[in-house]
Amino acid sequence: MKTMEKSYEYLEHTADSKFRAYGNTIENAFENAALAMFNVMINTSNIQPIEKEDIKLESENLDELLYSWLSELLYLFEVEGIVFSNFKIDYIKKNSGYTLEGHASGEKIDLKKHVFECQVKAVTFHELDIAKTDKGYCVQVIVDT
């Protein structure tokens, strides 16, 4: 299998933020989608992976699983006050539905250190897409900003 040349890219959208994330595996594409979402808000290269949050999710299909993954990360950001920079999905398994197990690492928000460029309010299902390509997977997401 060919390797991915880029992990994500931002696309034109009138009001919100739209991006495509790529990965050699579906897990890697989901990880890169999370990185793209957090980079909408802040430069993640300034975030240390000090705190780790374990995440386990179940959904009926892959679209819902991607939505749940990103929404859970956004929830943890808003409620726990953790901004993430590192994402690892151990596996996505298909059973009667789909199960995801992984974690995200980052640090507590420090407004003296962390400069936020934009606020992501929510993940949307609008134009959400997951596609298998000759190089792996591509996911497309629009987040409400």
Describe the protein.
There is one protein chain. The protein is of the alpha+beta class. The chain has one domain: Archease domain (Archease, Possible Chaperone, Chain: A, domain 1). Helix content is 24%, strand content 41%. It contains 2 helices and 8 strands; from the N terminus they run ββαβαβββββ. Strand 7 and strand 8 form a beta hairpin. It starts with 7 loop residues before the first strand and ends with a strand.
What descriptors fit this protein?
24% helix; 3-stranded antiparallel sheet; Archease, Possible Chaperone, Chain: A, domain 1; single chain; globular; alpha+beta; 145 residues; 41% strand; 5-stranded antiparallel sheet
Brief account:
The chain has helices spanning 26-41, 62-80, and strands at residues 8-11, 17-23, 51-59, 82-94, 98-108, 122-123, 129-133, 136-144. The chain is α+β, with helices and mostly antiparallel strands and 145 residues long.
β content, as a range? 35-45%
CATH topology term: Archease, Possible Chaperone, Chain: A, domain 1
Which term fits the overall shape? globular
How many distinct folded domains? Answer: 1
Structural class: alpha+beta
Q: What is the CATH C level class, in words?
A: Alpha Beta
Number of helices: 2
Q: Extract low-pLDDT stretches.
A: none
Tell me about the largest β-sheet.
Answer: 5 strands, antiparallel
Q: Helix content range of the residues, please?
A: 10-25%
The CATH architecture would be: 3-Layer(bab) Sandwich
CATH homology superfamily: Archease domain
Number of extended strands: 8
N to C succession of SSEs: EEHEHEEEEE
Distance between the termini: 35 Å
Q: Work out the radius of gyration.
A: 14 Å
- Overall pLDDT level: 95
